[in-house]
Specification:
about 300 residues; elongated; two-stranded antiparallel sheet; alpha+beta; about 60% helix; single chain
Length: about 300
């Protein structure tokens, strides 16, 4: 079963009078690349959350966002009295009549100054409650994300299977036409040589003709490439069915499939075979595009 790297999950929970909301978005990436945004009060959980995500998500760009608020009405921030008094003292020092500067101090404006209002540092017991609640909600969000990525992965697997089936069908057509191409070349070569020799009344040496046909057949032989491409397709299908984290392996196999298709195209001298190879390469490009989204 394949997993897609694209997914989204959002879980909202109320635990101990605190409302938590966790959002996780994932998109394509060759590696695991986390981006974690937390309120300052829960910043101490960043490493633990990253490890939890890494243990459950193999690769992809992961954007994690946590929001929470205390719905009981109790404040989650505190005022730094020392910083506030320091600001007031400095403002009073420049607003004295001797300086000629009049200054009216608005307490609400002072609260917007840096360092005056800051998040409360959770005590040990409160920190443990926050940790337990955040990880619980995060776990639910990750499970929801996994479900979506599996559903997307099933759609990817169906499309990849259809492309592989089409390639196998086209390869059968190429196998059937491979020997016909050699026989047609023999007939065309014999007819051309006879036309050239008829004016001088010479006979065509059958051994020479056979040797030329054999050289052509060896030069244009695509049997090995067909076998290897067929083998790659079987490996690709097996990888889709057996591995949850087979994206990199499937990407490598698809590159090898394209390599064999290009070799067949360069060696084939028949228009029908070339047309079938073009269709095969189109299917492989579609496969390569889809595989970029497989975990």
């Amino acid at each position: 079963m394949l997993n897609s790297m694209t997914g989204f999950a959002r879980v909202c929970r109320e635990i101990d009078s605190i409302s938590y909301a966790v959002e996780i978005r994932t998109v394509n990436n060759r590696y695991f690349k986390p981006s974690i945004k937390l309120p300052e009060t829960t910043a101490f959980l960043e490493q633990e959350i990253e490890k939890f995500l890494r243990d459950n998500i193999y690769r992809g760009s992961v954007n994690y966002l946590l929001r929470f608020k205390n719905i009981s009405g109790e404040p989650m921030y505190e005022i730094d009295s020392a910083a506030l008094k320091s600001y007031v003292a400095k403002l009073n020092s420049v607003s004295r009549p001797a300086s000629g500067v009049e200054c009216r101090i608005n307490l609400a404006d002072l609260l917007l100054l840096p360092g005056v209002v800051r998040p409360q540092e959770p005590e040990n017991e409160q920190a443990q409650r926050l940790r337990k609640a955040v990880l619980e909600v995060t776990g639910q969000a990750v499970e929801q994300l996994k479900t979506m990525r599996k559903q997307e992965g099933q759609a990817l697997a169906d499309d990849l299977a259809a492309q592989c089936s089409q390639i196998k069908s086209l390869l059968e057509n190429i196998k059937a036409g491979k020997q016909i191409v050699v026989n047609e070349y023999k007939d065309r070569l014999a007819a051309r040589v006879k036309d050239l020799l008829s004016s001088v009344r010479l006979e065509l040496d059958s051994d020479v003709l056979a040797r030329e046909v054999a050289i052509f057949a060896d030069r244009s032989d695509i049997g090995e490439e067909i076998i290897r491409l067929s083998s790659h397709i079987e490996q690709f299908i097996a990888g889709c069915q057996t591995g949850e984290h087979s994206g990199r392996k499937l990407d490598f196999i698809s590159q090898e499939m394209l390599r064999e298709a290009n070799t067949i195209a360069s060696k084939a001298s028949d228009a029908k075979i070339c047309f079938d190879v073009v269709q095969i390469k189109s299917c492989i490009e579609r496969i390569k595009e889809q595989v970029q989204n497989v975990e």
